[in-house]
Amino acid sequence: MTFLSVLLTALDGTEKVVVRAVGIMAIAAVLLVVATLGATLLVIGVQQLGLSFNFNGWPSSLLRTKWITEFSFFVGILSLFGGIGISGFCKNRTLGFVTSIPALFGLSLLLLIFIPTFN
């Protein structure tokens, strides 16, 4: 959210790349808030119902919350990396590549972490 507010105040919002960067960062901010609140709700529900990590015993409402939370977290992080990657292009091409390379590296590591958890 801080990154988004900096983009909104520091740059001219008429260029296409700025509009895209702001849009991507807004998506990231919203989805990461949803993931945080969803995870909090899951923990409260699991504790109140005395459940374990055996998902077979979970009610469907908690499983739906778990899926939405995981999806929001994953897409929110992807959006965050995308916003970081594209943000450098708001200034110039060189800075764009400087921000894109670490974002792509982080994305690669993230995929190595997340993909096995979806099997």
Task: Provide structural commentary.
The structure is a single chain. This protein is mostly helical. It has helices at 2-10, 16-49, 60-87, 93-114. The protein is elongated and about 55 Å long. The mean pLDDT is 86.
Q: Notable features of this structure?
A:
119 residues, mainly alpha
Topology summary:
Blueprint: H1 2-10, H2 16-49, H3 60-87, H4 93-114
Helix pairs in contact: 1-2, 2-3, 3-4
Structural class: mainly alpha
Intertermini distance: 31 Å
As a percent range, the share of strand residues is under 5%
Counting DSSP H or I runs of 4 or more residues, the number of helices is 4
For the report, how would you describe the main beta sheet?
A: none
Calculate the mean pLDDT score and round it. Answer: 86
- Rg, Cα atoms, Å: 18 Å
Number of strands: 0
Please indicate the count of domains. 1
Order of helices and strands: HHHH
Helix content: over 70%
Low-confidence stretches: none
Task: State the shape.
Answer: elongated
Keywords: Membrane, Transmembrane, Transmembrane helix
